[in-house]
């Protein structure tokens, strides 16, 4: 149905419409909108804080790189340093460093204990041998003609024992070196999974040296616990 005024044009009907919406629903909608707005503001604050933190880390890393010799500086480009700074943002890498430090210290302590145990065992064997040799020489006082033979036998026994002990120590040291190498490989793999640039499993001295520099940088940037 159309409504016409005196001018002959179309005019819509005048209706005073009041929506029949539950006040609790309106309050819920307003709360949800406010919550989303607050989330957006919080995300923006976090992005700004992260940007400041990355900028700080990057500045510190650049200063640390300037302390390195030239051949190491060339590997640590601006892009690499930026990636390192970004990898530190959520603190996970710092936690990994702390955990690996604890594991390494415990492992090294255990390896040192193994070596000291063998050293003490060798010391005891040498002392026991020396005690026997001294007694055999004392016994020759009654039979001095036996002294050259006893001394020769003692020397042969000493040489054999020293060769045996040296071989045992060499084998243990080789085993300890392999265990330490495995620790390094585990650390390299862990940092690679954490997204720290230039970390991968390698025994190349140049690559390892760069990784050690990066690890030192991270340790220097670690917040006090």
Describe the structure.
The protein is an all-alpha fold and 225 residues long. The protein has one domain (38-221). It contains six helices and no strands. The chain has helices at 23-65, 70-73, 78-87, 92-139, 147-193, 205-221. It is elongated.
Question: What descriptive keywords fit this protein?
Answer:
about 220 residues; about 75% helix; elongated
Sketch the major β-sheet.
none
Number of helices: 6
- Mean of all residue-level pLDDT scores: 88
Distance between the termini: 79 Å
Number of strands: 0
Succession of helices and strands: HHHHHH
Rg over CA atoms = 39 Å
Question: Helical percent range?
Answer: over 70%
Based on Cα principal axes, name the global outline: elongated
Number of domains: 1
> How much beta, percentage-wise?
under 5%
Structural class: mainly alpha
- Uncertain runs with pLDDT below 50, 5 residues or more? none
Coiled coil: 26-53
Keywords: Coiled coil
Pfam family, one: DGCR6
Family: Belongs to the gonadal family.
Task: Write a brief caption for the model.
This protein has 225 residues and is an all-alpha fold. It is 75% helix and 0% strand.
Topology (SSEs and partners):
Elements: H1 23-65, H2 70-73, H3 78-87, H4 92-139, H5 147-193, H6 205-221
């Amino acid at each position: 149905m159309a409504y016409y005024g005196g001018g002959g044009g179309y005019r819509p009907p005048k209706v005073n419409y009041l929506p029949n919406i539950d006040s609790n629903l309106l309050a819920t909608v307003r709360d949800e909108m406010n919550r989303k707005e607050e989330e957006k503001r919080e995300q923006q604050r976090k992005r700004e804080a992260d940007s400041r933190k990355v900028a700080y880390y990057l500045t510190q890393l650049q200063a640390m790189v300037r302390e390195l010799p030239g051949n190491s500086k060339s590997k640590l480009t601006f892009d690499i340093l930026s990636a390192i700074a970004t990898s530190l943002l959520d603190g996970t890498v710092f936690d990994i460093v702390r955990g690996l430090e604890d594991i390494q210290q415990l492992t090294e302590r255990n390896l040192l204990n193994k070596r000291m145990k063998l050293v003490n065992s060798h010391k005891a064997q040498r002392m026991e041998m020396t005690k026997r040799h001294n007694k055999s020489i004392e016994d020759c006082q009654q039979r001095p003609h036996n002294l050259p033979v006893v001394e020769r036998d003692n020397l042969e026994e000493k040489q054999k024992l020293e060769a045996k002990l040296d071989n045992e120590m060499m084998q243990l040291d080789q085993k300890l070196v392999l265990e330490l190498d495995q620790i390094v490989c585990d650390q390299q793999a862990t940092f690679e999974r954490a997204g720290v640039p230039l970390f991968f499993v390698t025994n190349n001295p140049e690559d390892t040296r760069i990784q050690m520099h990066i690890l030192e940088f991270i340790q220097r940037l670690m917040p006090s616990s």
